[in-house]
Amino acid sequence: MNKQALITQIQQKKSFLCIGLDVDLTKIPAHLLTKEDPIFEFNKQIIDATHHLAVAYKPNTAFYEAYGIKGWQALEKTINYLNANYPEIFTIADAKRGDIGNTSTMYAKAFFEDLNFDSVTVAPYMGSDSVEPFLAFKNKTTILLALTSNKG
User: Fold this and answer.
1) Residue pair 52/91 in contact by the 8 Å Cβ criterion
2) Domain with 127 in it
3) Which residues, 6 or more positions from 64, have their beta carbon under 8 angstroms from its beta carbon?
4) What is the tens place of the pLDDT at every residue in 4-56?
5) Is 90 strand, coil or helix?
6) Which long-range contacts (CB under 8 A, 24 or more apart) does 136-140 make?
7) Which residues are tagged catalytic?
8) How many domains does the chain have?
9) Cα separation of 61 and 64, whole Å?
10) 149 domain residue, yes or no
11) What residues contact 111, with CB distance under 8 A and at least 6 apart?
């Protein structure tokens, strides 16, 4: 999805709702914990219940990374589910990545090519070479962190 398609969704739904998928296993309903992939099942239920209202979903990758390979698999299943069932909805990898050029290139490839997110959050504090690899994906969106809500 591109920027214009996102704007169209905002206009059609009369909504700016972006739903964060920051999954914490200690807060998932007990009945889902018996499922093979409780993180994905939780996300799927949230998505199916809210897709008519939301214009974007934003998984925070730290909440998936914390669970190792199973977390990454749940993230991949979640984004694949969104892309297959609700391709009109914008996806944001809330990854806050930003590193030297060659490392940023690999991050960009992971989120844009492998996981097929529409956008990714990037921390530009290490300079332009930390951002340029993301901007090279012309059909994707890079969200630069500028003024964050944390106290620091």
Assistant:
1) no
2) 3-144
3) 23, 39, 71, 72, 74, 75
4) 899 999 999 999 999 999 999 999 999 999 999 999 999 999 999 999 999 99
5) strand
6) 136/108, 137/108, 137/112, 139/2, 140/112
7) 96
8) 1
9) 5
10) no
11) 93, 95, 97, 117, 120
Q: How confident is the model at residue 96 (pLDDT cuts 50, 70, 90)?
A: very high
- pLDDT tens profile 54-79: 999 999 999 999 999 999 999 999 99
* CATH number, domain with residue 58: 3.20.20.70
Evaluate whether residue 116 is within a structural domain. Answer: yes
In the structure encoding, which two tokens stand for residue 57, read together?
Answer: 């979903």
DSSP-assigned letter for residue 72: H
Structural domain includes residue 152: no
Do residues 57 and 91 make contact, with C-beta atoms less than 8 angstroms apart? Answer: yes
Spatial separation of the C-alpha atoms in residues 118 and 40, rounded to whole Å = 19
By percentage, how much of the chain surpasses pLDDT 70?
100
Residues for the chain: how many in total? 152
Query: Which amino acid type is present at position 102?
Result: N
What is the C-alpha separation between 128 and 138, in angstroms, rounded? 16
